[in-house]
Design goal:
The chain has one domain. It has a two-stranded antiparallel ribbon. The chain is built from 18 helices and 2 strands. 45% of the residues are buried. It is mainly α. Helix content is 67%, strand content 2%. The radius of gyration is 21 Å and the shape is globular.
Length: 423
């Protein structure tokens, strides 16, 4: 039986394949440490297959994506001065190919397909964790928490956060109906339960904040561009003022207290201090990508011992910028921050000025989620991670040709205006 290329490569016709590919990718990102190399090969297979089908459509012109590869290329170069050359080089190559997979996905599937695949993938990941989950002690605070089938409650919390966010996007932004409407409702409940079960303060706080911000921005879409920008500017100033005022009156301590945390963030401040000391030894270039947390390296061994990490792996500085400074120095940190800020500003600009589509709002929300989490986690600087996959997917969308401004989606809510739903 001959399969038409369009069912694999055309974003308007490959929904079934795209949903399956995204769902499989999410599962691999979550549990590749359990299922090993065969799962990684499956991840590569579903995306590089599209290169064989139509390499021009799948790859496009990579000159447009040079800014996206900046951090990945520097990670590769840094391997040559890393004390763990083999580990650094291998992981840098994995990171680069991971970026390529994200860009292939970005070019070959629609945003609606991404949302549906993310919902399906998150559901499978969370159900698996519910069935085979365990409780483990937290290395930072010593408490026992439900971690699902992960090694950390924060990983379970992150997938639960994504489940809540993508279900919100499906129902409120893309107006899903049919089977996807009840599916989103059920999976959002599963995600909310997993979020609470994980007891991850980071995930709960970021999820509530980002969804609330997206709901607020969604309300701005009923305004004209001129008024939208004015209201957004006013809301931003008021929001920042409210945050500063709340911090002055001890809101942070109160929030942390709800989750049983203290002002040291359960040892993170000490870890950050040690990270900054390590970064000061190689400030410009860093020690080398993935070159710090290596067995036999004295400082890594000392910190593993201090925090009781008997496995001597799977640990980090719980801060993207400190981790990046240690491994890739100022240069690598600037490159990564440049990509992150470009994603946020680029999609916000489209949201307020140019395209004003649900897609822009969704990617802005994802970027904000990753930004907030970046101060306590490292979601965007490792291969085979759902955070870095979405990070580069969102970045790639900015490199695509800009479509004509379109208010069809939001005009359907304005009396006297009707329009065909887009997505």
């Amino acid at each position: 039986m001959k399969i038409a290329k369009s069912t694999l490569i055309d974003p308007t016709k490959n929904e079934l394949y795209g949903i399956a590919a995204v769902a499989l990718s999410f599962f691999v990102f979550a549990y590749s440490n359990r299922f090993g190399q065969i799962s990684i090969l499956g991840y590569y297979g579903v995306w590089f297959l599209l290169v064989l089908v139509d390499y021009k459509r799948a790859l496009g012109n990579y000159l447009k994506y040079l800014w996206i590869f900046g951090f990945g290329l520097f990670c590769f170069i840094s391997a040559f001065w890393s004390p763990a050359f083999g580990t650094s080089l291998r992981t840098a190559i994995q990171y680069m190919t991971h970026i390529v997979c994200a860009l292939i996905a970005m070019r070959t599937i629609s945003t609606r397909t991404l949302v549906r695949g993310a919902i399906a993938g998150t559901a499978v990941v969370l159900v698996y964790s519910m069935l085979f989950g365990i409780y483990l002690p937290d290395a930072m605070d010593g408490t026992f928490s439900f971690v699902g089938a992960f090694s950390s409650k924060n990983q379970l919390g992150f997938y639960a956060s994504l489940g809540v966010f993508f279900c919100y996007a499906a129902v409120m932004l893309f107006r899903e109906r049919g089977i996807w409407f009840p599916a989103a409702g059920g999976i959002s409940l599963l995600s909310a339960y997993s979020l609470l079960a994980s007891q991850s303060a980071t995930s709960v706080i970021t999820t509530v904040a980002v969804v609330a911000a997206c709901v607020g921005l969604q309300g701005f879409m009923f305004l004209s561009p001129k008024h939208r920008r004015a209201f957004f500017g006013a809301a931003l100033i008021l929001g920042l003022g409210a945050v500063v005022g709340a911090l002055q009156f001890g809101a942070m301590d109160a929030i942390l207290g709800i989750f049983g945390k203290d002002s040291t963030l359960t040892g993170r401040t000490y870890l950050w201090q040690q990270g900054m000391l390590a970064a000061s030894e190689y400030p410009m270039l860093g020690i080398g990508y993935q070159g710090f947390w290596v067995q036999g390296f004295p400082e890594a061994e000392r910190l593993w011992d201090f925090f009781g990490i008997t496995g001597r792996s799977g640990f980090h500085f719980h801060n993207t910028y400190i981790e990046t400074m240690v491994e890739t120095g100022v240069i690598g940190t600037v490159l990564l921050v440049f990509i992150l800020l470009t994603i946020i500003i680029g999609h916000l600009r489209r949201l307020l000025v140019i395209a004003r589509t649900p897609e822009s709002l969704m990617f802005f929300g994802i970027a904000c989620l990753l930004l907030v989490r970046s101060f306590v986690e490292i979601d965007i600087m490792n291969p085979y991670h759902v955070g870095s996959f979405l990070f580069y997917f969102a970045a790639g969308r900015l490199a695509l040709a800009q479509r004509r401004p379109n208010r069809v989606f939001f005009d359907q809510f304005v009396p006297g205006r009707t329009g065909r739903q887009t997505g």
